Amino acid sequence: MNNDRRRSTTFLPRRRSLWIFFLLLPALVVMTLFVVWPLLSALRFAFYEFNGLLPSNFIGLENFRKVLFEEPYSDWTYNAFWHNVIVFVSLMIFENGTAFLIAFALLKGLPGHRIHQVIIFLPVVLSSVIVGFLWKLFLHPLFGIVNGALALVHIHGPAWLGNEKTALGSIIFANVWHWLGFPTLVLLAGMQRISAEVIEAARLDGAGDYVLLRRIIWPLIAPSVTIVCILTFIGSFNWFEIPYVMAGLTGSPGGSTDVLGLYFYRTAFGSVTNGIQDFGQGSALAVLMFLFVAGFSFVALRFLRRREIQL
Predict the structure, then answer these.
(1) What is the pTM of this model?
(2) What is the percent of the chain with per-residue pLDDT over 90, rounded to a whole number?
């Protein structure tokens, strides 16, 4: 009897572990085929010269040297990288800053705040391709509703996506409209976790909205801020769908909307206007993007986590 009980007690955990393994197996297969294997392949191909679609000769770090130090490739690389930096800074200021203020307004429970939560988050559920086509129509210089609205107040709107000075800003604005609801709800969730007694005590001490935001709410929502900042950084340097739909694969006009995602795709697979493709250089760009995003995210995450502990 005792032996049977021991066998049954040891058999159940094994059976449970086996069942968990079979449940996780499909996800592991998908991750291996579509994430791990492409990453390892890109790392390998970055060290080869390509003859069409097949690797021919091992050339070491030559592809990395070309994309970083040899003109005109280096100029294109740093131009695209600079635009990604502009996108990141702009989203941090305009998207996340606006989300912080909207989240505080929703926290105060203004009339209709529940409906506004749905309205603000609604664009997030839309596809990036749909948002890109939508705002491309809105910003059309002849029949777009943006220039139509400006014409009502006797202002002649520019060709938003055809002007080097306004093209990148227009695409950033479309991205802010698309994703504003996500950081808003993340920050709102962080604010709602703050004890009502803490906010009430601050109000009784005479704290206004500015002091409350700066001295009470901002330090206490540090974990939510960490999530928003890291995801904004990763999204900014993986930017592809909206600029591709709104400005095209070449980053027109004049490369003013070119970002690393577009440059990588154009280099690896070619484009309609540029039939030249080099999968080795494209793989080198992909590896550099991965190392930069992963490395910077790791450092930033450690810094922001330390800030949470200090606060």
Answers:
(1) 0.88
(2) 47
